[in-house]
Amino acid sequence: MSYNILITGASGYLGVYGNLYALVRTEAQADSVKQYGAKPLTFDTRIAAEVNFIKTLGEVGSRSGRAVHFLHTTGAKVFSSHAGAPTDRPLLDNDPELYNIQKSQRSSHTRIQEAVNANNIVIKEAEKHGVRSYIFSPCIVYGEGEGFGNKISIQTVAIVKAAKALQRVYKVDQGEPSWPVCHIVDNTTLYLQLLRKILAGEDVPHGKNGYYLASSGSIVWEELYTAMAAALAKRNVVGDATVVPALGDEDSQILERIRAALGCPKEFVPVQLGGKCTFTAVHGKEIGWEPEFPPEHILEAADAEVELILKNL
Length: 313
Ligand SMILES: NC(=O)c1ccc[n+]([C@@H]2O[C@H](COP(=O)([O-])OP(=O)(O)OC[C@H]3O[C@@H](n4cnc5c(N)ncnc54)[C@H](OP(=O)(O)O)[C@@H]3O)[C@@H](O)[C@H]2O)c1
Known about the structure:
313 residues; alpha/beta; Rossmann fold; 3-stranded parallel β-sheet; binds NADP nicotinamide-adenine-dinucleotide phosphate
């Protein structure tokens, strides 16, 4: 049986491909995706948002009589302290209560609340239109992107950008909060494992039970900072490898400079550079995914990550 797959964000860091259509926004990207055997479709998703995708998929499903699927990419932030998620215990991605937990979450950050709402809307609308939905969650992803587009990630990049601008590595959290991590290859293999299972016609947990965190485990932010600070000091990007707290009101000038370096509102600096997330990956292993890299690998890879980011910034 043949399937059609539409991938959005194909030019991004996490973009993957198969037998597919790829959403692009420029002629150059269209040429690039053709080299991967994909047919480019050019449009802007701000115009055709998730709800429209799902509604249209629902029509495809009822006309063809075949199962249709929608895989939404979210992020671990949506399951963290920043998003009002519980952090006093491991939050398992196969917890049958996760949908209700997400429904009850309240975030003081509008953008994060919108991302929480997006997950809930995808699940609800998909259910309504007979579409099977999956919420795929990357976390701190590291390693070189293998696609034709963006080669570098998000959170490790924010650490380097802030350090470069301030010539020092600052931490913005009290205590020792941790966050799940994942090598880009493992992130991709979970995505592909989900696709493989769906295409094989298997009844993969979906809808309210369809959350998939791509992570081999968590690390403490400060350990990541320390490893990256050593790599940054070695390259004279920062004066020395010490990680300095920037937490209170007396540090507001420092936080203002970090804000400027990251190009985000001041209250979003801790969202970009820290926070606590106890989201824990179980679902992936249940569908046969086995990550290759343990969480500590990000610390060993910090030197290469810094090199990669500095080369691509
Ligand atoms: N990388 C991580 O560590 C990480 C962690 C957690 C969650 N995530 C989430 O995963 C998703 C993908 O991340 P990424 O690292 O691959 O991001 P990225 O490198 O910035 O790529 C974003 C992709 O989305 C496309 N895009 C953005 N706005 C669009 C629009 N309005 N219409 C059509 N296409 C649009 C971009 O196309 P152009 O090339 O044309 O701009 C690009 O292909 C994001 O939602 C991100 O928040 C990523």
